[in-house]
Structures are given as structure tokens and as C-alpha cells.
Amino acid sequence: MPIPSARETTRHLLRNCAAVVTDDGSGPTLLRDVDILIEGPAIAAIGKRLLEGLGEGPQGEGLAVTPADGWFVYPGLVNTHHHFFQCFVRNRAELDWTKLSVLEWLDRIYPVFARLTEECFYHASVTAMAELIKHGCTTALDHQYCFPRHAGTRLIDRQFEAAELLGLRFHAGRGGNTLPKSEGSTIPDAMLETTDGFIGDCARLIDAYHDARPFGMRRVVVAPCQPVNCYRETFVESVALARDRGVSMHTHVGEGESAVIQARHGMRTVDYCAELGFAGPDAFYAHCWELTHDELRTLARSGTGVAHCPEPVYLVGAEVTDIPAMAAFGVKVGLGCDGAASNDNSNLMHCLHSAYMLQCLVAGQRAHPVPPAADFLAYATTGGAQLLGRTDIGRLAPGMAADLFAIDTRRMDYVGTRHDPLGLIPRVGIGTPVDLTMINGRVVWRKGELVGLDEGRLFAQAEAAWAAADLGIA
């Protein structure tokens, strides 16, 4: 059979996959030596010898057949928290968390953020998205809260443009900050917005881009940055807009600000958000490392989710987020990279390994046992989908979106590991890009290349945008 272009074909067959992590909705199941048939954006079938049933007739026309011997195939990873724009401040010695207090770091980093240009935001998004795709991520939420006045009003629009270029399924978390530094925030005046301006742009973006249909590639999330940097009315209006338009809500909670919120409002952040209505099955918070068990139970009762970002824990040096307690209480958990200013990479697969190992590190200090390694894979797939309010991604099963990645395990790296595909990534860690990433039935990364794109050209454009910006750092 002829093999059409990977980006153009709407029919694919991955033949003789060594292992496939499937889930019909009742939990993960491991299948060995099976085929996966993809029709358009969705998985059509998973089973043995599917090619024999298609034959050489009309059913086999236009079918791209990929030998998958030795491949472990997984549902695409779902990134639930990131700050793409921070890619332009990675690996900066003068911004090293370990040499600065959190307040000193914020005072130094935010003026840098305030200098970013529209081109910086676009190319930083391309950079982060490309790295995510290379490591098996197929859906990503970006919490874009930085809106310098000189950069214009179409920064989220440029992010959707970047996602379209790369083929990434993208949820735009339209963030914003409204409280001035003179009233207790950490935000420079050049990055401040009004509540009306923030809500108005959220509404514009929902009208222009939000696609709630199954397999939709573009969605918008109302995401004021954090309660400590916003007026109360900003959160109240965010809830009203999100509930009126049927979109999700997101913000930062429990990353060291609870004492400040207690002093301002007479309650900690979880109760404050709940009082404002910014809680429930349509809301999820990033971080939550400082929450008490009572607060975690409150999240579980309301259905509010947590986007756990393990790698900033290394830099902040604070508590390791109590994932075992969240699991025990029934809190919805997804995983996120967080921004490059507190992570320095956009590799969600690496976060699976970090998340599991961090919990093992403090296991003796916890009241609840560390969840099985396979659960950390679930946090990054089905858990992430649940946080984003999606029932069409996060699992490999007929009728689900064809979002997946594959690892060819016929390498020395995997000797002795192949008996347990479910625990492979959290326990062993994967140090190289995957062999294939497919999103919505389109191959976007294969054999070291971004399909249909010139990575060298993208690199040069991003470096030029960074060099042209006056970021005020050496």
C-alpha cells in the first residue's frame, strides 16, 4: 500500500505495537502485540491483525501503515499548567532561585517579564510547544498572565497561531493581574490591567476561539493570575463570565500566599476562593503544596482539581506537595510543567518521573502511602483531561481522540524494563524525545523531526526575537 504524507493522511494504522496502554473508562489495561487503527481525528479500533481485515480494496485506500514492532504506545500527555513566555529567561544565573528569596526573585524577574514583546510571546510559545510535543504531550494549558502594555492586546491570539503551526491541542488560560504593587501585589505597573479590561478580553477570546465540540483543538480558560495579585472583583467577575459561557476557571493557590490572604480577608486562600465561587468541578488550582488536609477535603467535596507541578519544588525548597493525601481524599489531580522561570524546561514526561520520585523521598513523613507508579501516568493523562473538563482525550480507546505517543523500546536504555509499560516513565524516566507523537489523528513529531516544519528555521527565528528584545539582563 502507498504511504501518504503523515500530515495529510486521515487514516493511519500502527501495526504490531509491542504494548498499548488502553482504557475503556474503567481503568488502564495493557494490550500486547496489537494494532491501532485511526480514522480522521479518532481511534477506530485496537486489536490484533487489523490490517488483514482492511485488505487491498477501498477499505485500505489512503492508509498510512507504520510498523510499530517494539513500540510502547501511550495516551498523549496533558499539561495542565505552564507559562510559555518564561522560555526566554531560562538558565539565567542572575535569576537563580537558590541565591535569592522568593520576594527578591519576584522583584527581579517581573521587571524582566514586563519588557517582553509580542514577538517574544509568540516565539516563546512555539519553543515551549515544540518541546512538549517532542516528549509526548498532546494537549497543553498555558497560564498566560503577563500582558505588558507595549506588547499589544493580541498575545493569546499569537499563542493560538503557534499551536496551529505545530498542531498542538491548546487550552489558553487567559490570566491577568489587577492589584497594584502599592496595594500589596508583586506586579509592576506596566503589567497591570483593569478588571473590565481583563474580563472583556476573556470574552473576546471565548467568542473568537473556544471550541467546545468533541476533538476541539482550541479552548479558553478564564484564569486570573492569583488572589494575592488581583482585586476581589476580578475573581467575582471571572466566575460570572466562566459560568455564563460554560468555560473552565484556573488560578494559583497554596504556593505560599495563604498567610497574606488570611491577613487581608480573614481566611486562607481555599476558603476565600470558595466564598467567591471560584471552586467546583469547572475550577482547578495550580500548586497547592501548602494546603492542610482539611483544605484538601474541601477541594474533594467541591470537585475542585489540582494541577501539581513537581519540578518547582526543587527550586523553591518548600514542602513536597502531599499527593498521597490528595489521592486518599479523592482530589482530582493533573500534572503541569510550570513556567520555565521555576523549571527551565517544558518536558512534562520528565515531570512524571520527578513527581513519583519526590513522593518516594518523603514517604516516611506522610500519613498516606505513595500511590503506585502507574497512577502518576494517569495523573498526566486521564487526570489532566478531567481537570480540563474533557471526555474526548486522555485515554486510548475506540471513539477517543487519536492523541498518542510511542517509544521504541528496542534500545539499551530499556533492557530489563519492558515488563511494566505502566510504570516505565514514572519509575525509570525517559531521557530522550519520543519516537512519534500524534495529535487529533495527525503525526506532528516523528523520528526526530517536527513533521512538515523546519526546526532550524524556527530556532533561528526564536533566537532572533530573544536577541532583539531589551530584557534588561546581561
From TrEMBL:
UniProt KW RNA-binding keyword: no
Gene3D superfamilies: Metal-dependent hydrolases, Urease, subunit C, domain 1
Organism domain of life: Bacteria
Residue spans crossing the bilayer: none
Keywords annotated in UniProt: Hydrolase
Domain Amidohydrolase-related: 72-444
CDD domains: ATZ_TRZ_like (cd01298)
Family under the similarity heading: Belongs to the metallo-dependent hydrolases superfamily. ATZ/TRZ family.
Matches recorded under PANTHER family: AMIDOHYDROLASE-RELATED DOMAIN-CONTAINING PROTEIN, AMINOHYDROLASE SSNA-RELATED
Name of the protein in its database record: Amidohydrolase
Organism: Methylorubrum zatmanii
Species classification: Bacteria, Pseudomonadati, Pseudomonadota, Alphaproteobacteria, Hyphomicrobiales
